[in-house]
Model the fold of this input.
Amino acid sequence: MRSTIARLTVVLLMLCGSLASVSSYAVSITDIYFKELTLRDGLSDLTVLDIAEDKDGYIWIATLNGLNRYSGYEIKQYLASEDDEFSIPSNRITSLYVDSWGVLWVGTTSGIARYNKKSDKFEIVHKKILRISPAL
Done:
């Protein structure tokens, strides 16, 4: 009986010791750093509608007034332009999605675009056409 209690005590002490060592690897909340991005940092708008991270580590920020790519150091803006066929369809970005191949898809109020990281341009894959019906 005493040997069973002694064995159980040793097992419990070993278990407690292993649990204590696992918790020592936990990340402390003080290890996390967050920087607030503002218009002064280059953000195109303060109203953020969606955020995504691509496979290269860029943070993509969808706003009411354009798409922003944050490298951790600087922000690059992508804005719609009627003169540039490779720009996003609209400045109002409603959704972002990175697929399993690492391709960024951008949903806007005027259509969907796919980002080509080699050319740093967008290909519009679907454009919403507004139809105005004649007044009756």
